[in-house]
UniProtKB/TrEMBL annotation:
It holds the Pfam family PAS. Residues 404-450 form the PAS domain. The keyword Transmembrane applies. This is PAS domain S-box-containing protein/diguanylate cyclase (GGDEF)-like protein.
């Protein structure tokens, strides 16, 4: 008996079930889509209404803003303000003149229209300060109209209108309805912005007061300008140009305005009453009639009245869209069904064929390493589909692992760390390129060997035992290890070794990764060195100095010997650094370092604190005299000049010495006391050494207190200028004065300039003090210019001393000229006194600066001439006015022939250079007579007057009587 052919019946049942399922799905989807389409169109209708409402609100706001801007512009226009001011003025019975009054109103009406403009139409009204309507105007697309009011004999108002064809002609007429309506509102002073109901619908208003401003007195309101615009049919069309709506206005009395009047018979407006309750909500404030959709919302008007814009959408149009959408949806469903049925038939009739052959072919592709194309093989049944999916997953896994292996091989080869892999017996299987570069061994040379051939011999057996113990217990070890390369070089490395175990936990391989630490070690050593040494000289810095001094003190205390500390500070190093540059200064510091090291023993420590300060620690000295011998050696080493950058430089040093245990028991005390002794050496004239003595601390404390007090003395107004006269020797006339600073330090009295001027230069406060001195001298000059002429006195030039630190300032010239420029003084009234050291530091540069100062009207002189070093070749080229002979030469010219010869030579030199010569320190008449015989020009000193404050100097000038000197003491023969 043959087997029944039941396969076709199963296919038929499956096909029927498939078709039934498709029909049910299409039915449900069609129903849901129909409901969704209808709901969509209803929501779309609501959105149309909401869009129209937003358009209306936006249009109203735009027009209100335009009207308010127009009202403000008209109210601010000068011509309109002037016209309305005249109208208000001539409306007063005291000034009333009918012809003048009507003429002013004509001009006002013309200005009103002429000054306004609009794209649609505007109605304008102007009232005077009493609220009387005086002029009106209209501006439209096709023309403009202006008018004003007069009164007939009976007192009735009569409107006069301007002829549009002949603007100079006016004729009696009637004002437009909306203008009359607007005028009624204008007399009641409407608000700045409002919306009212007009005969033609709605009207927007904007008003602004017209204010007349006077040069003196309060502003006066002379009237008000009102601008209005009717929201007529053009406005309705503007609002609905983007929406398929009919639009109109509905008022509470039932009146309808707009294009919905034609629909009044079809739209039952009585049904709008429920809408009024929800007019503020665009979603609930609408309803559906048999043929239309309606929506209402409210607009508040002036006077507690409401207007209701009414939007009407024809329902037939919406339903037509719904039907069209549903028809398209039904056609799409039918086409989908026509495509699904043949597809189901093909699937039902397809037999279980060729899946095994496809599967076998796919397996062969995988074996050959061809992983693409498996997904495209149709399996034919669920079972075969599962097999194909498994085969595809297997192929993807194999490909992923192969890609991973290639990636790791690339990473291993490109890694900058040396890597090698061994087997379980620790025989090398694989090395990378970095391993070859570090060790020098190739893969062929290293393969099969254990890593023992890399051992440097710097690690013992315990080291390697701990390494293997960690690998066996944790599977990992890392640490620093030293290996030997093929060329014998021993280098440090950071190694990380890991054991690789299989699934059973048996170790199959070891992987070692090495990072070369050679550069890292060198960087560490460099950082450690820089942390304890000066980067410029390589000498120990303060930190290492303290460590070594601490060790030296401990050894001295233990063994019973002494430790010497020399604090060395180079004299006037800042001048070299500032004038020649920091590079020259650095080279000089290096040269000084070499000489200091040559002057001490190898066991001693030479350190640099920074700048030009050094400290030498003398280990294991027997007595204090040993430190003195070293200080002498240091000064002797510094005697020879330094040749740097083609310049021969000389430098000296001031040295302070402290000795353990007499001068301190710790490093801080010894350094501090040596520093104190160094400052004492500077006070003794520099280029010497001084041992610390306890009384120096008191002197150092006084100096520190003086320095602290010096800061801020200018702000505390503790400085005062004293003035000493300069007298022409031959005539006895007062020809100048020198300003000398004095410091009244709180309640302590005056501080000698010899004490605080050097300290001010050392701390830099001389810059602030110098600016104050110059400004105060200029201020005092201006005050004397205002007072002395009335007293019959003639003002004289005042000399001001300049510090070398001031002159070396970057913007010295500009700063000085700014100070002098703040005071109205004639040229030549301020004289600057400069020392020889200032002008000879950089003669070329100094000469250019002095020339500019001279051109600015300042006098220039060399102070204390003869105490420094001058090059006459440069001196003659400087634009100087005077030479001042130092008082140390003048005070002994009576008894000392050498001083007499020096003064005579300076006077002759000054005259040969065309300069006036001033002698300082003249205290006796005998000195004055000798100077006169020499031909010296000017004298200054106690013989005439001591330095005194400005008030006493003025009193001295007022009482001074010049005494001509007719003769002199003959010059003694040399």
């Amino acid at each position: 008996m043959t087997a029944p052919n039941w396969l076709p019946s199963i296919k038929a049942k499956l096909l029927a079930l498939l078709l039934l399922s498709i029909f049910l799905v299409l039915t449900v989807v069609g129903t849901l889509l129909s409901v969704g389409v209808e709901r969509f169109h209803r929501e779309e209708t609501r959105e149309v209404f909401a869009t129209a409402q937003r358009a209306l609100s936006a249009e109203i706001q735009t027009r209100q803003a335009f009207l308010l801007q127009m009202a403000g512009r008209l109210a601010a226009d000068e011509a309109l303000v002037a016209s309305l001011n005249l109208v208000s003025r001539y409306s007063d019975p005291l000034h009333y003149d009918p012809l003048v009054f009507d003429g002013e109103k004509k001009r006002l009406a013309g200005d009103l229209v002429r000054l306004s403009s609009a794209t649609d139409h505007l109605s304008l009204v102007v009232v005077d300060s009493r609220g009387q309507w005086v002029a009106f105007g209209r501006v439209e697309k096709n023309g403009q109209e202006a008018g004003f009011l007069s009164f007939d004999n009976a007192g009735a108002p009569l409107a006069w209108q301007q002829d549009s064809l002949s603007p100079n002609q006016w004729h009696a007429g009637r004002t437009p309805v909306e203008v009359e309506f607007l005028a009624g509102l204008a007399r009641n002073a409407p608000p700045t912005q409002a919306m009212v109901r007009s005969p033609d619908g709605l009207m927007l208003l904007a008003s602004a007061p017209v204010i007349r401003h006077f040069p003196r007195g309060e502003p006066l309101t002379v009237g008000r300008v009102v601008v209005a615009q009717t929201l007529g049919q053009g406005f309705l069309e503007q609002v609905t140009r983007y929406t398929p709506l009919h639009f109109g206005l509905l008022f509470a009395q039932g009146q309808v305005v707009g294009d919905i009047q034609a629909l009044a018979s079809e739209v039952d407006l009585s049904r709008a009453a429920p809408l009024l309750k929800n007019a503020g909500n665009p979603l609930s404030g609408w309803q559906e009639t048999p043929r239309h959709f309606l929506m209402l919302f409210s607009l508040p008007l002036l006077g507690n009245e409401q207007a209701y814009p009414l939007l009407v959408l024809e329902k037939e149009g919406v339903n037509k869209q719904v039907r069209e959408t549903l028809g398209v949806l039904l056609l799409v469903l039918l086409l989908a069904g026509a495509l699904v049925v043949p597809l189901g038939q093909a699937l039902a009739n397809r037999g279980i064929s060729r899946p095994v052959l496809n599967l076998l072919a796919s397996v062969e592709r995988v074996k050959a390493g061809q992983y693409d194309g498996i997904a495209g093989q149709a399996p034919g049944s669920v079972e075969f589909a599962s097999l194909f999916d498994s085969l595809q997953d297997m192929a993807h896994t194999i490909r992923s692992r192969e890609d991973q292996l290639r990636l790791w091989a690339s990473v291993l080869e490109q890694s900058r760390e040396a890597v090698f892999v061994t087997d379980a017996e620790n025989r090398i299987l694989l090395v990378n390129r970095a391993f070859v570069a570090v060790t020098g061994y190739t893969l062929e040379e290293a393969r099969g060997r254990t890593p023992r051939f890399l051992q440097s011999g710097r690690h013992d057996q315990a080291f390697y035992a701990n390494l293997w113990r960690s690998l066996k217990e944790t599977g990992h070890w890392q640490g620093e290890i030293w290996d030997r390369a093929k060329d014998g070089r021993i280098h440090p490395q950071w190694a990380a070794i890991s054991a690789v175990a299989d699934a059973a936990g048996t170790v199959s391989n070891y992987i070692a990764i090495y990072s070369d630490l050679t550069e890292h070690k060198a960087a560490q050593d460099r950082i450690q060195f820089l942390a304890q040494h000066d980067p410029l000289t390589g000498l120990p810095n303060r930190m290492l100095l303290q460590d070594r001094l601490t060790v030296a003190i401990a050894a001295a205390a233990r063994e019973g010997h002494e430790v010497g500390v020399l604090f060395i500070d180079l004299d006037r190093f800042k001048t070299i650094n500032d004038s020649l540059g920091h590079s020259v200064g650095d080279e000089l510091i290096k040269g000084v370092t070499k000489r200091l090291q040559d002057a001490v023993r190898e066991s001693d420590t030479v350190s640099r604190l920074g700048g030009d300060e050094f400290i030498v620690v003398l280990h294991r000295i027997r007595r204090s005299e040993d430190a003195a011998h070293v200080a002498d050696a240091v000064l002797a080493q510094l005697t020879a000049p330094f040749n740097i950058a083609g310049k021969e430089l000389r430098v000296t040093a001031s040295i302070g010495i402290s000795v353990f245990p007499a001068d301190g028991e710790d490093e801080e005390g010894l350094i501090k006391n040596a520093d104190t002794a160094m400052f004492h050496a500077k006070e003794r004239g520099r280029n010497n050494y001084q041992f610390f003595r306890p009384e120096m601390n008191a002197r150092a404390g006084e100096r520190l207190a003086l320095e602290n007090s010096l800061r801020g003395a200018v702000q505390r107004k503790e400085f005062v200028l004293f003035y000493q006269p300069q007298v022409e020797i031959r005539s006895g006339r007062l020809v100048g004065a020198e300003a000398l600073i004095r410091w009244r330090r709180g309640d302590s009295g005056f501080v000698s300039p010899a004490d605080f001027i050097p300290l001010a230069e050392e701390t830099g406060t001389i810059l602030e003090i110098g600016d104050w001195v110059l400004a105060e001298a200029c201020r005092q000059q201006v005050q004397w210019d205002q007072q002395w002429p009335a007293m019959g006195l003639k003002p004289v030039p005042v000399a001001v001393n300049l510090s070398s630190l001031q002159f070396r300032q970057k913007h010295f010239k500009e700063n000085l000229l700014d100070i002098v420029g703040d005071y109205p003084l004639p040229a030549g009234r301020i004289e600057l006194e400069l020392t020889e050291s200032i002008v000879m530091e950089e003669p070329e540069l100094v000469g250019a600066v002095l020339a500019e100062l001279k051109q600015a009207g300042l006098r220039l002189s060399i102070d204390d001439f003869g105490t420094g070093y001058s090059s006459l070749s440069y001196l003659k080229r400087f634009p100087l006015d005077k030479l001042k002979i130092d008082a140390s030469f003048v005070r002994d010219i009576v008894n000392d022939s050498a001083d007499l010869a020096i003064v005579h030579a300076v006077v002759s030199l000054g005259h040969s250079l065309g300069l006036k010569v001033v002698a300082e320190g003249v205290e006796h008449e005998a000195e004055l007579l000798i100077l006169n015989a020499m031909g010296c020009d000017i004298a200054q000193g106690y013989h005439f007057c001591r330095p005194v404050p400005a008030e006493k100097f003025q009193a001295w000038v007022a009482t001074y009587v010049p005494v001509p000197l007719r003769g002199g003491v003959p010059m003694p023969e040399s």
